[in-house]
Amino acid sequence: FKRLTQGLAKSSDKLTGGIAAIFTKRRLDDEAIEELEELLIASDLGVKTAAKLTGNLRKTRFGKDVSDEEVRTALAEDIAEILTPVAKPLEIDPANRPHVVLVVGVNGSGKTTTIGKLAQYHREQGLNVMLAAGDTFRAAAVEQLKIWGARTGCPVIARTEGADAAALAYDAVLEARENKADLLLIDTAGRLQNKTDLMQELAKIVRVMRKVDTTAPHACLLVLDSTVGQNAHSQVSVFREIVDVTGLVMTKLDGTAKGGVVVALADQTGLPVHAIGVGEKADDLRPFSATAFARSLMG
Ligand code: GDP
């Protein structure tokens, strides 16, 4: 909790500083509400969610004297309410051997790092985890995943650069099954510059792995870089057109003032948020807690 608070320090500083500036011995009038709404939008909570939050405050406190602390507490409660339905850990069904998780997202969003962190976490839980280097387009991505495999003690299935990603995914599911792996995490390429290619490649990966296991993938995680702020919404739309996204992981929440985007995404997509990344190391993945996040955001 403490580290989450530190991780969200920039988002929180912006919001709490802004709220303090608006509500210094002040009545909750139209002007104050408008200023608050602008602050929430500037903090990446999005227009709709900002309006919903200020609407709630208006209903309960309009015309009353309010302190900044009271406003923060009320907002934290409402934000926690928005986040609660989406705060769900990634569940690994032991009936699936392996439970196949396809990890998608644009390049640089933190896919490979998140896979490394998830591998570490689930290994510690006693699961037999395997990784597949499905971003066959970039040699560096394959190397990066191999480093995470070595670091976490998880075998990595990889092919040479330029190999067919779907063929690799097929082999990976087979190999993971033969090795009685509990969990197979598959990295993918995220070249959003060419949407048609990406769409075809991901569709083919899914189609081909289903020749081994008709129920795979059992989850499709979209990894989003929180620092892109409102841009995250368009990434969600694009990837949902391509694959059946089942949940989100938000990365780089350390050192960004854009943590509010998590609230906007929760409110507007309803997609589960499985975990958040608060650093580059193996243990810098946090389970997503609605109340802890809301409180950290509101200082
Ligand atoms: P990919 O291209 O989607 O696989 O992205 P990578 O996993 O290679 O990550 C891109 C960069 O972001 C790397 O330098 C990572 O170390 C860094 N990164 C990933 N997750 C986090 C995070 O939660 N916090 C911070 N500060 N950096 C992160």
UniProtKB/TrEMBL annotation:
Main location as per UniProt: membrane
Protein topology in the membrane: Peripheral membrane protein
Transmembrane segments: none
Top-level enzyme category: hydrolase
EC number: 3.6.5.4
Domain Signal recognition particle SRP54 helical bundle span(s) in chain numbering: 4-83
SUPFAM superfamilies linked to this entry: Domain of the SRP/SRP receptor G-proteins, P-loop containing nucleoside triphosphate hydrolases
AAA+ ATPase domain boundaries: 97-249
Known catalytic reactions: GTP + H2O = GDP + phosphate + H(+)
Chain positions recorded as GTP binding sites: 105-112, 187-191, 251-254
Domain SRP54-type proteins GTP-binding: 98-299
InterPro entries the record matches: AAA+_ATPase (IPR003593), P-loop_NTPase (IPR027417), Signal_recog_particl_SRP54_hlx (IPR013822), SR_rcpt_FtsY (IPR004390), SRP/SRP_N (IPR036225), SRP54_GTPase_dom (IPR000897), SRP54_N_sf (IPR042101)
Localization in the cell: Cell inner membrane; Cell membrane; Cytoplasm
Keywords for this protein: Cell membrane, Cytoplasm, GTP-binding, Hydrolase, Membrane, Nucleotide-binding, Receptor
Function: Involved in targeting and insertion of nascent membrane proteins into the cytoplasmic membrane. Acts as a receptor for the complex formed by the signal recognition particle (SRP) and the ribosome-nascent chain (RNC). Interaction with SRP-RNC leads to the transfer of the RNC complex to the Sec translocase for insertion into the membrane, the hydrolysis of GTP by both Ffh and FtsY, and the dissociation of the SRP-FtsY complex into the individual components.
Description of how the protein assembles with itself and partners: Part of the signal recognition particle protein translocation system, which is composed of SRP and FtsY. SRP is a ribonucleoprotein composed of Ffh and a 4.5S RNA molecule.
Family: Belongs to the GTP-binding SRP family. FtsY subfamily.
Protein name, per record: Signal recognition particle receptor FtsY
Species, as recorded: Lacibacterium aquatile
Source species taxonomy: Bacteria, Pseudomonadati, Pseudomonadota, Alphaproteobacteria, Rhodospirillales
Gene of this entry: ftsY
